[in-house]
From TrEMBL:
<keyword id="KW-0067">ATP-binding</keyword>
<dbReference type="InterPro" id="IPR015855">
    <property type="entry name" value="ABC_transpr_MalK-like"/>
</dbReference>
<dbReference type="InterPro" id="IPR003593">
    <property type="entry name" value="AAA+_ATPase"/>
</dbReference>
<keyword id="KW-0547">Nucleotide-binding</keyword>
<feature type="domain" description="ABC transporter">
    <location>
        <begin position="4"/>
        <end position="234"/>
    </location>
</feature>
<dbReference type="GO" id="GO:0016887">
    <property type="term" value="F:ATP hydrolysis activity"/>
</dbReference>
<dbReference type="InterPro" id="IPR017871">
    <property type="entry name" value="ABC_transporter-like_CS"/>
</dbReference>
<dbReference type="Pfam" id="PF08402">
    <property type="entry name" value="TOBE_2"/>
</dbReference>
<dbReference type="GO" id="GO:0055052">
    <property type="term" value="C:ATP-binding cassette (ABC) transporter complex, substrate-binding subunit-containing"/>
</dbReference>
<comment type="similarity">
    <text>Belongs to the ABC transporter superfamily.</text>
</comment>
<dbReference type="InterPro" id="IPR047641">
    <property type="entry name" value="ABC_transpr_MalK/UgpC-like"/>
</dbReference>
<dbReference type="Pfam" id="PF00005">
    <property type="entry name" value="ABC_tran"/>
</dbReference>
<dbReference type="InterPro" id="IPR027417">
    <property type="entry name" value="P-loop_NTPase"/>
</dbReference>
<keyword id="KW-0813">Transport</keyword>
<dbReference type="GO" id="GO:0008643">
    <property type="term" value="P:carbohydrate transport"/>
</dbReference>
<dbReference type="InterPro" id="IPR013611">
    <property type="entry name" value="Transp-assoc_OB_typ2"/>
</dbReference>
<dbReference type="GO" id="GO:0005524">
    <property type="term" value="F:ATP binding"/>
</dbReference>
């Protein structure tokens, strides 16, 4: 297996910039998710790594070797578009062995490799069955088998679960991660689905208009979003923003919001008077009668183990995830309390998080 390193990778289609100077490393055995909405440049990035698209500028290294201008076939990468694409007239063994047959590998060796792969995927009992009669899960495993039988240096997957219904998708997310834990293949996985990325990936690159807004572990991206875009894209419901105008000084540990002092992680930068936003995740809000920060209940969504209650404050609509054991009336006044160590401040002009105690040690570019 291999490291993938991309440096200042850029792709222009005429005057349109699809990927803007991306740089990151996927270490040997890591699972990276490229996450973002439609059109943000995920597939273009993946196709450049695969050798299916030439970059306008920048470099791609595979295991330290510069492969930027190597043909796709010379990169030893398996590209999986959609896991269901099987050859219907062949049985399972022939489907899995096909890539090796195309390489001209001797039959005995193909047989051995296919047997090994089938054992790994726990489909060795169906090797002689026709793929057309298989259930969805087994078809998916066969398709995966065909990708891993070659033992490529890495896997590139473009929304491989895109066509599956929600329930089966969840099963496959679990299976793909399990498989990754067993074979530790360096993987780059494109998805627009935050749940898939959070559940499977060791690292996530969140993309927006061709730019990587943040690169980090799922935990870092969730707890310490580098930008308002990331904070809003990740989380369901997403992070709440409460806008206010203020100047901040390095060393400040509170802000004035709706006329109320709110404790925040210590600020590490002086800022001129500017428009700021306090970011708070719904689960870091508590209702407390003693809190002077007041709002009126706007609505609630019962979710069984908890509920999401929308509260209208002076300037914002805030969603709080609170225990399900209390019923709220529309219009009822509640006091809001935030967990101070979990709060993020953003500069609304740049959209970036304001450097603070929260970000001291683990910021990624
Ligand atoms: P999706 O999930 O919809 O595929 P994506 O994030 O993978 O989204 P890309 O397919 O990488 O996005 O496309 C990024 C942008 O580049 C899009 O605006 C797309 O229209 C544009 N683009 C992609 N390929 C080409 C091409 N060959 N010629 C012109 N524009 C292109």
């Amino acid at each position: 297996m291999a490291d993938i390193r991309i440096e200042n990778l850029r792709k222009e289609f005429g005057s349109f910039v699809a990927v803007q100077d991306s740089s990151f490393t996927v270490h040997d055995g890591e699972f990276l998710a490229l996450l973002g909405p439609s059109g943000c440049g995920k597939t273009t990035t993946l196709r450049m790594i695969a050798g299916l698209e030439l970059p306008s500028s920048g470099k791609i290294y595979l295991d330290g070797e510069d492969v930027t201008f190597n043909r796709a076939s010379a990169r030893d990468i398996a590209f999986v578009f959609q896991l269901f694409a099987l050859y219907p007239h062949m049985n399972v063994r022939k489907n899995i062995g096909f890539p090796l047959l195309s390489q001209g590998m001797p039959k005995a060796e193909i047989r051995q490799r296919v047997d090994e792969t089938a054992r790994l995927l726990q489909i060795d009992h169906i090797l002689n069955r026709s793929v057309s009669g298989l259930a969805g899960g087994d078809r998916q495993r066969v398709a995966l088998g065909r990708a891993i039988v070659r033992r490529p240096k890495c896997f590139l997957m473009d929304e491989p679960l895109g066509t599956l219904d929600a329930e089966f998708r969840e099963v496959m997310v679990h299976e793909l991660r399990e498989l990754h834990n067993r074979i530790h293949a360096t993987t780059v996985y494109v998805t627009h689905d935050q749940h898939e990325a959070m559940a499977m990936a060791d690292k996530i690159a969140v993309m927006n208009h061709g730019v990587i807004e943040q690169f980090g572990t799922p935990q870092e991206i969730y707890a310490k979003p580098a930008t308002m875009y990331v904070a809003d894209f990740i989380g369901s419901p997403p992070m709440n923003f409460m806008r206010f105008t203020s100047g901040l000084k390095s060393g400040d540990t509170s802000i004035l919001l709706d006329g109320v002092d709110v404790a925040v992680p210590e600020i590490h930068q002086d800022m001129a008077e500017s428009e700021l936003a306090l970011g708070v995740r719904p689960e870091h809000i508590r209702f407390s009668d003693a809190s002077p920060l007041r709002g009126a209940v706007y609505g609630s969504e019962y979710l069984g183990t908890n509920q999401v209650v929308a509260v209208e404050t002076r300037g914002s609509l805030i969603k709080a995830r609170v225990p399900a054991n209390r019923t709220f009336r529309i219009g009822e006044t509640v006091g809001l309390e935030f967990n101070p160590v979990k709060l993020t401040l953003f500069d609304c002009t740049s959209g970036r998080a304001v450097p603070s105690q929260l970000y001291q040690e683990t910021r990624h570019g």
